[in-house]
Give the backbone structure.
Amino acid sequence: MTAGETGHETSRDEDLRLTVAPPPAGGDGAGLFDLHHPPSAELISDCVHCGFCLPTCPTYALWGEEMDSPRGRIYLMKLGREGAVALDDTYVQHFDACLGCMACVTACPSGVQYDKLIEAVRPQLERHHRRERHDRLFRAAVFALFPHPGRLRVAAVLGAAYQRSGARRLLHRGRLWSLLPDRLQAVEELMPPARLRRLAARTPEVTPAVGTRRRRVGFLTGCVQRVFFADVNAATVRVLAAEGCEVVAPRAQRCCGALSEHAGREPEALARARRLIDVFAATDVDAIVANVAGCGSTLKEYGRLLRDDPAYAERAADFSAKVRDVSELLAELEPVAPRHPVEGRLAYHDACHLGHAQGVRAQPRAVLRTIPGLQVTDIPEAEICCGSAGIYNLVQPGPAGELGRRKVEKVLSVAPDALATANPGCLLQIRRYWPGDLPMFHPVELLDASIRGVDPIAAARAPGGRRRPPWLRRRHEARTAEPGRF
Amino acid sequence: MTTYAGEYLDLLPEPPAGRVTAAFRADVARAVGPGGLITEPAQLRTYECDGLTGYRVTPALVVLPATTEEVAAVVRLCARDGVPFVARGAGTGLSGGALPVADGIVIGLARMRAVLSVDVDDQRAVVQPGVTNAGISAAVAPHDLYFAPDPSSQVVCTIGGNVAENSGGAHCLKYGFTTNHVLALTFVTADGDVVQLGGDAPDPVGPDLRAVVLGSEGTLGVVTEITVRLLRRPEAVRTLVADFADAEDAGNAVSDIVAAGIVPAAVEMLDELAIDACERAVQAGYTPGCPAALVVELDGVAAEVEDEFERVQEICRRNRTTHVRIAADPEERARVWKGRKAAFAAMGRISPDYFVQDGVIPRTRLGSTLTRIRQMSEQAGLRVANVFHAGDGNLHPLVLYDGAVPGEAERAEHLATAIVELCVEQGGSITGEHGVGSDKACSMPKMFGPDDLTVMARVRAAFDPQGICNPGKVLPTPRLCGERPGPHRPHPLEAAGVIERL
């Protein structure tokens, strides 16, 4: 197949339609890619093929194959630009297998911007490659659910009913479970235990600062976060207020588009970005705070995402400049609220979209170290992704499972009393593969507890404390992805 | 100009005539399982070069075996059908040693990455070839042991590749090369037999075949298990960075340190361009704009290290150092080394493309050679950055160029070759640690006479009479280098369109 034949013979899903010229025939433009932001030849040429990225790449760590390594994928991009390869399932699978964890960006001595490269390739593949029917349907279902808190709430209620009615026990007892496709098993196992009482929780539109107001900040409540991790949002607002921030959380805010952006669904991501910029336009805040690593990193990218839109380019850049992860903001502020001891050994897990994508590593640790009694330890092989990676553990359950088990092994090696990470995805992923009961927190929850004078780690240790639901205690042997073809 | 001896030409086997047929492919798939085979054209292209991207050849097949038995089975099939093979680790080599052979296969050892056993009392470990150099040290760190050879790419390069190239590193000045730290090898011969070379004792009886294989660049067979020697971590380590206004002063300081009877663990030098690239990459705290910086590290017994560290500083001052920075803690020391070790890869920050050279000169010629390199760089109108192991005279000039400018790559290659030949003229060598590979095979006659090459060809033919192990590497052939070996000829494979350059 030549470059000219690859792209545009099939119809696209409506929401992915984008008015761009098809790839020029004869490979004289960007080869397989159309001219709407193809992976930049200049960025590709920054790669000198030294291989320093290999040891930190999760898929290279799993399979040891060149084409599933960062430099291999960049090589494939180069071949794609030259039109030297076909845009087929083989080509696409290596980009689909990339977790987008950006560990290679941290590792690269030559400063190759793999983040920009992969984010340029994914929309191209979405536009010019037609996935198989079951894959399309599954992805469509994921995107019809996760970015919609309203629908998520309904799903959570159904999920709670499922978990409590005995249907779950029945399913797991029989052979039925093993007959489910891997992806559905992943959805079922990653589903957070819903707590119905908390589903109704809403973040107040304005929360005044305690004492003297030091900042006025906007707060992104998130989608999965606000439905399943309402406690984390509540803790974030309390901590920010206690540290002198007035917190503004506009009711009208919707999904920030991070999941869509990371999956290459560009038009959807851009539409969501514009909407969120509009919602925060009237708030007049000093900073916009995110407590989800994946959302925060996309918010910081809005300037680049909307660079072509004359109406939004400047506003998007201004918006991005104001975005802070909650730990960044807290590290900037001299603590004013008194802390009480939280005793225990805490393993801190760097979420890839916080550490690699945003370069925020020191701040969460610094914030946690303001808590007396808390012993914060690092996890070996911290740079390798846990396999969560947005919707990766749903669409690529095989490799995600292997990475999840690998991460759990490393966490176990430091024998912690609790684990903290700033991304709900990581939390669900690690919990799925954790063999016993381990209290897991967002860092801000621990800070909140410390300020309120309670010790959640001790509480979890006490009999009848925070327990892992029985259906999660069994370790599943997820099928190992066969190297080379998955 | 050297010509080839008649016997040498007779010893060179005909290029292997075997092809990867459907039957061969099916047999290989049976040997390693379908998951261990890479066959799609787009996937194969990602294996077409290693760290030296100037030479590229797409292999017919890539095989990823998981055990010694699988490697042996694949090699037996290659021997049966006369199919050439190239062993590959992480593909970070800088001399094109893992450049595939057209119509041949690549045996990738990236999945053989287990540390098989650690013997703490006897200070050795048995590892598979795909374990990274740094991975060995990490695996034995809980026992306060480490693996001494430390190539700059140690976080990614594999021990199998280190064995093939007899890799060195900053600390080989004091501790020696890979060959000094490998006790035994499990080796798959060119016809697929599995043999043990060397043994657990430091000095086994009989000819040292282990030493013959070490550094043979994959031309004799495939190493599938390595017994490495481990060292106890030194009691004390001190590191300093001394800036000099002139590379000649820095060179003299190195000679004075060695003349004073001090054996530093490492002595490294970086010039202004190299410092610029390192600082942009990792902010290691080198002084920007400094014409020559020396990194000196001492290790050993605390009292001795303290005494010698004072004397090193005194020697630097005597040679007009402009600034001495002493690493205050292990973190700062790690930062200094991170900068030095990222130097090659960091060149991407200051130049779109570069050639890394690897030559050796007598330490006493450091100053004058650097001056000559500068003159040659000015004449060619190309920038040359210098990063090198000053303690043992191992130079790594990096010739910077822009492949997008027509003709610049060729000029850069000429300059790089001329620099290496300058090293030979100065009484040195064409390679210190990166190996000969594809890149320097045609420079071999610059350094070795017809008799030397004939002896090498005899050794090679004794191990691999069919010539299927990594053919076209190390030994020059009229086919590769033109009838009269010498510099500045376009590669015939390139002229024939078989390989291409960036």
